[in-house]
Every structure is written in structure tokens, then in C-alpha cells.
Automatic annotation (TrEMBL):
GO function terms (MF aspect): methyltransferase activity
Name assigned to this protein: Methyltransferase
Source superkingdom: Bacteria
CDD domains according to UniProt: AdoMet_MTases (cd02440)
Domain Methyltransferase positions: 45-145
């Protein structure tokens, strides 16, 4: 059985692993939550590609009256989140694959959501499916609703020299934080999970494996898909190198 203590240790290790790619991860979380907090104090929030719930838990720590529906399709990450945050009011995990149309039906929203959020997750969606996700998402947000996406989004297709500068800034931030000794990488974390006698016994299902590429890592792809879904105001609220917090608003 996966205990709270075991899950807690692995989520702490997850967070350290993520910081190897995102040296300003906590600052980006703070900026995102600041934007959510600028609205009502009890928002309904959808967390897309929530992983073990790192963002969802931080949201509820700042906004305890919020309701957060956290969506992912990886049984291992969902199991960690459920074990760690079982007693956290306002948080509900939903096992759904965003690539499959109709994923919003499982959200069981009491009313249209105020905000949708995502961090370092949606880049693995191929562009046609990204468009479908944004279109379906727009249908469950209230008028004036907001989407916030923190991710590495490149401008290499529109501004190659600027893209090189953004990459250089990101590399410099990582070097300063870790002084040449970054934490374990993504592949090593998953290898350690597989070797753990408790986590390794969790069947990850074939459809949850392999969501680790960068199929839609261009800023232009996300902006275009959001505009096609009906979002009318789109811009960057926070940025460090090529790591951005993209905001999109419905009319």
C-alpha cells in the first residue's frame, strides 16, 4: 500500500527533479497563483496534466476556498497525489487522457470553471490534439474565463536570434542555481520509480507512457490554438528565458 509518508518523499524528489529543468519553478508557481487570486476568492480551477498535484496543492494553500479538479492520465502520478493530498479539502483528482475527446465530461463541474491552469505538461500534445483540448476547454469555462499555461515555449519559428538568447538565459539560471551539479533528470527519476517495490508495482498503462516529448513546444502553436478556440486576449504574464506564463482570456 502506498502510504502518505512514502508518497510525500517521492513528491519531494519529483519537485527537486523538476527544478533541474525549471530553476525558477517556484517563482512561476507564485506568478500563476497571483493571477488566479486576482479573481474571486473561491474559484473553480481545472489543472490540466496535474502530475502528482504540485500546482494544485500550492493553489489551495493560497486559496483555501477554491475547488481544484486535477486531471492526468498517469496512474503512478495520480496515486502519489491521492496518497499525499487525501485530506486536502477542495482537491479532486480525475483520471482522464486529454488526447481523448470528451475528457471534460468527467470533471463534474457544479458550474462553469473560472480558471484552467497547466504547468510543464501540454507540450507533449501533438498540435492537432492541442487544438482539440483548447476547444473543449473553452466550452467549460465561464464567459471571461482564464487559462494560464506555464511552460517552455520557443520562438524559434518567428525569432530565431531571440530564441537563442532565451535559451542562453535559461541555461545561465540553471548553472547559477545548481553550480554544475543539477539534481537527477527525468529519465533517472522514472528509473528509480520502477525500482521502488511499491511504486514499481503500479501499472502505468500503455496510454500513460510516452507523454514526455515536445510535440507542441512553439509559442505560436499555443497562441494559434487558443485563438481558434475562442480566446481573444493572449499574452505573457511572466517570463524567464524561454520559460513563460502564457495567459489567455475568453470574451
Amino acid at each position: 500500500m502506498l502510504t502518505h509518508a512514502h508518497a510525500h518523499a517521492w513528491i519531494e524528489r519529483w519537485d527537486r527533479q523538476q527544478e533541474g529543468y525549471l530553476p525558477d519553478r517556484e517563482e512561476r508557481f507564485t506568478a500563476l497563483i497571483d493571477a488566479v487570486a486576482a479573481g474571486r476568492p473561491d474559484p473553480i480551477v481545472i489543472d490540466l496534466g496535474c502530475g502528482p498535484g504540485s500546482l494544485s496543492a500550492r493553489l489551495l494553500d493560497r486559496l483555501p476556498d477554491a475547488t481544484v479538479i486535477a486531471v492526468d492520465t498517469d496512474p503512478l502520478l495520480l496515486a502519489l497525489g491521492r496518497a499525499e493530498y487525501a485530506d486536502l479539502p477542495g482537491l479532486r483528482f480525475v483520471d482522464r487522457d486529454l488526447r481523448v475527446p470528451g475528457w471534460t465530461e468527467a470533471l463534474e463541474l457544479p458550474r462553469p470553471a473560472d480558471v484552467a491552469v497547466s504547468t510543464t505538461a501540454l507540450h507533449w500534445l501533438p498540435e492537432p490534439r492541442l487544438k482539440n483540448v483548447y476547444a473543449e476547454l473553452a466550452g467549460v469555462l465561464r464567459p471571461g474565463g482564464m487559462f494560464l499555461n506555464g511552460d517552455h515555449l520557443a520562438v524559434s519559428d518567428t525569432s530565431p536570434r531571440l530564441n537563442d538568447l532565451e535559451l542562453a538565459l535559461a541555461a545561465g539560471a540553471t548553472e547559477r542555481l545548481f553550480a554544475g551539479s543539477p539534481p537527477e533528470d527525468w529519465a533517472s527519476w522514472w528509473a528509480a520509480v520502477a525500482a521502488d517495490p511499491i511504486l514499481g508495482a503500479i501499472d502505468r498503462r500503455q496510454d500513460s507512457v510516452g507523454h514526455h516529448g515536445s510535440e507542441s513546444g512553439l509559442l505560436s502553436a499555443h497562441v494559434g490554438a487558443l485563438r481558434a478556440a475562442g480566446f481573444t486576449e493572449i499574452g505573457t504574464l511572466w517570463q524567464r528565458g524561454n520559460d513563460r506564463l502564457l495567459c489567455a482570456l475568453l470574451p
